[in-house]
């Protein structure tokens, strides 16, 4: 359009665009400050998550120590590991058992008469080779052309094979009868013995293992003799699995595993210290710099640490045991709030009065008394619940603040955009007016100059 100005300030030679940008920059300062506030709140949310994770670690360990089954941990030893090894499950009765292994369970094996090579035919005509294991029979076909190796392969590839492995064995004699078919049951014990029902071959079979003695293991425990089909026996001593290795005698000792309980108590206190340190480090405020940690303005977490501290030091009445609070088994707190555990005192308590340590931590469920670990677990559950938990509520409060600041930024941005849209239009009009005045001035100057020239 004729007379229009394409660049703001071009008509007046005044940097109107620069003026607008400077005004905008000044008006943006409050928005920039609000965005900085938002970043601080987002850092706070991240720190909430970090603290929550560390407190969940404490809760997991407290929960474990609030269960009576934790104190049923057992350890087991064998006096002769060359004869047998053993494993034990939680809750097994403590004590010593004498074990004598009279015989190991074995696999049943059969060996055929010998032929010259693995590729020697072993049948005079067509027929079947049938065998049974544990009441299940299967068979393979043979023909006059079937070789020793082919029979072995047929048995191994039989989809109905009930549990036998065939192989061709060279006895090393170098004679015309050096190669034999060997059949071995896959499982040990008399129940898994192999029976050759139909032999449609020219081979004869001899039972190699299982003919002279039983294939079952024989073990005498505390004077009573048992037979079992395998060398892994878990149904005689309750909660104990014996792994037989050789014939001979050994004693098996089951004891309470208080070392594992001690390790769990130590781990719980270490986890508490890690969480408390995280809260303390991020709650500090530097008076000189005016800079505080992510939690410096949130009293909830300092209160939380104090309450957890009180729970760990709580005196539990009515237990009737040797210990009424955690200080009795070695717990103390340093001036900076760090929990310390005298492991020597703890170990002595677990050795001399393990049931009383259990009472202190678990409580007396029959009489409705909660122990320290039970109380701590419940307290941490309320703190760390994903919804309506203490930390979740704090996160919700901060989320609302961030949203409110978002709304504030949006409102301020819209207002400023409207303001500068209007200001830009006004500056365009000013620029146009000044340009017009400038042109009129230039015209008048030219007219005056022309008149002066004509007079001369």
TrEMBL record:
Q: Does the keyword Ribonucleoprotein apply?
A: no
Q: Which residues form the Flagellar hook-associated protein 2 C-terminal domain?
A: 216-438
| Domain (Flagellar hook-associated protein 2 N-terminal): residue spans on this chain | 12-107
| Pfam families hit by this protein | FliD_C, FliD_N
Q: What does this protein do?
A: Required for morphogenesis and for the elongation of the flagellar filament by facilitating polymerization of the flagellin monomers at the tip of growing filament. Forms a capping structure, which prevents flagellin subunits (transported through the central channel of the flagellum) from leaking out without polymerization at the distal end.
Q: What is its main location?
A: secreted
The subunit field of the Swiss-Prot or TrEMBL record says:
Homopentamer.
Which family does the entry's similarity section mention? Answer: Belongs to the FliD family.
- What is the protein's given name? Flagellar hook-associated protein 2
User: Cross-referenced InterPro entries, in alphabetical order?
Assistant: FliD, FliD_C, FliD_N
A GO biological-process term: bacterial-type flagellum-dependent cell motility
UniProt keyword terms in alphabetical order: Bacterial flagellum, Cell projection, Cilium, Coiled coil, Flagellum, Secreted
- State the GO CC annotations: bacterial-type flagellum filament cap; bacterial-type flagellum hook; extracellular region
Q: Where in the cell is it found?
A: Secreted; Bacterial flagellum
Domain of life assignment = Bacteria
